[in-house]
Amino acid sequence: MEGDFKTLISFGLQGQTFAFDSLMVRNILPYEGQLTRVPNARNFILGVINLHGNIFPVTDMRKIMGIDQQEITVDTSIIIVSPEDKIESQFGIVVDLVKEVFEVETERIEPPVFQRKMGLIESFQGAVTEKGELIHLIDLLHLVSQIESKK
Prior knowledge:
Elements: E1 5-13, E2 16-21, E3 25-30, E4 45-51, E5 54-60, H1 61-65, E6 77-81, E7 91-95, E8 97-105, E9 126-130, E10 133-137, H2 140-149
Parallel strand pairs: 2-10, 5-7
Antiparallel strand pairs: 1-2, 1-8, 3-6, 4-5, 6-7, 9-10
């Protein structure tokens, strides 16, 4: 349909830019090492965080995607998302840096550039070029289903 827009939030990982639906984002926090470790958790779960009296698991997007680890910097952030729009479904995703929130016409979204699996991400929703930069779109709902199936 002409004129349809999608609002995305973009973030960086290892020099590449990824994005997902910004309507699922509840909060963005600086990463300050405020996590409580959870014994016997899967390798991509860094721990849990207490945010406004609610406890959320925090995942490492680099480990989820099978990307080499990098040192934590001042730009490292935790994006709190809620794919099902419920407090119980909220979790954090650690990324190298949060870039921006932007709107894109859905007709500008191209087929995905990556044709292979990246860690738990079996496929990407698509790709879009914004301000001269190629951005890979992640289907957050599909990612959550992959994370939950690995329990």
